[in-house]
Design brief:
single chain, 132 residues, 8 strands, 8% helix
């Protein structure tokens, strides 16, 4: 496994920056190993797969996880507010870093992840190919 690490600063879009990094570094298959930091604006899709919620408040990143590929990333995040209440959901564009976000990715060099539309779910779903 090859490791990638980078830091985001105030005002950067968490999801967009991760996706841009994956494309720029041609990561064919990867995972988020670690993500810590804080956000001041959060955009999440809820568990119903339809509803998108936008929150303007200070949140600490408790965990972030996802599968990464050049043609699409699937990322979920958990956040805590000032009262230590935890929320989470599917990460959408528009989640803005407050002070910092430290991201560590793992790249699998012997796999290729992809995304193909699945009629049964209505989403582009993960495909996995083992490379020779």
């Amino acid at each position: 496994m090859k490791i990638h690490a980078f830091r985001l600063t105030k005002g950067m879009d968490l999801k967009k920056c991760i996706e841009d990094y994956v494309v720029e570094h041609k990561i064919k298959s990867g995972v988020i190993l670690s993500g810590v930091g804080c956000l001041y604006k959060v955009v999440l899709r809820t568990a119903d797969g339809v509803t998108v919620v936008t929150l303007d408040n200070h949140y600490e990143i408790v965990s972030v996880t996802g599968t990464l590929a050049v043609d699409g990333c699937h990322i979920h995040i958990s956040l805590s507010d000032n009262d230590l209440n935890v929320i989470g959901g599917h990460l959408k564009d528009g989640c803005l870093v407050n002070v910092t976000a430290e991201i560590v990715l793992g790249e699998f060099e012997d796999y290729e992840f992809g995304r193909e539309f699945d009629e049964s779910t209505g989403y582009k779903e993960l495909t996995i190919k083992k490379l020779d």
